[in-house]
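Practice problem: Non-homologous end joining protein Ku
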Amino acid sequence: MLTFGLVSVPVALYTATQSHDVHFHQLQRGTSDRIRNKRVNERTGKEVDFADIVKGYEVTEGEYVIVEPDELEQISPGRSRTIDIAGFVDLADVDPIFFDRTYYLGPRGKEYQKVYALLVEALEHAGKAGLAMFAMRGKEYLTAVRSEGGLLELHTMHFADEVRDPHSEVGDLPEKVKLSPQEVKTAEQLIGMLAIEWKPDEWHDTYEEQVKKLVQDKLAGREIAVSAGPAPEATNVIDLMDALRRSLETARKDGPAEEPKKTRADRTPAARASRSPKPTGGKKSTATKASTAAKTTKRASATGKQQLSQLTKAELYKRATDLDIPHRSTMTRDELQHALEQAGRSQRAAS
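Answer key — structure tokens:
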């Protein structure tokens, strides 16, 4: 039961994600014999029955407080029957680092669809998430209930003391670094040029796909070819502006990945008017078009084999995405370059 204030709606909990990891068994080399792990007394080396195993909390080295299973059972939170929302917070205020697992919440019966839809709509418009404590599988969780895609999602969350302090975990964090306005502006331009729309279906676990391909190749007796591109080198502080400029030039040659979404300012009549091209004479307009076409042709001719060889795998993958090259997510860097070269030859032949 999901409750907020005096409003209640019966809901069911559904798992939202699943893992596709490739699972292997451990075998003794040269045989098909499986390896088994046994519970062994580390002092005597003898196997211990499960019934003789208890939990111990180490107080000092070698000294334990023994806790019996029934003692833990007595204080276990059990399973919550109610998700009682204690309050609502702005989603923008919740750092994603606090989110853990995700579940779907669905109405438990058609008669509760209206109340369910009301909460979905209200949370969507308000941009809020409801916080609640919730117990399942013998553990208590802090949870957030939010609206997404026309339904409710429940996220289990980390407590504040479970999130590590980055300043004590991460070394060499910058404190006061002097950055020139030009460096910041150039970096922002590069980010803008590389801006893309979030399309989760285009992203794949390429390592898992390569592992499956490796297994199938070995099963078929095919030769295993291992190809790895060179690791990128760290950017030297002295060469920072040069690296930013070259990255920006490459992004400009590739053209914008997608048209950026308009901001509120862009939607105003004044903003649209200020961005409208000024009327020009016919000859000047024709000359401008011809000049633009010439520049475009020149840029297109510069995307040859030599330039592709200088790009990183991420840059090659971006180009392959723009050209909608199939199976790109499973390709190595060299395979991406080869596919792009073939696509370029096909385009030139067609023109």
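Discussion: Residues 282-301 form the longest helix (20 residues). Students who identified this feature from the tokens alone can consider the problem solved.
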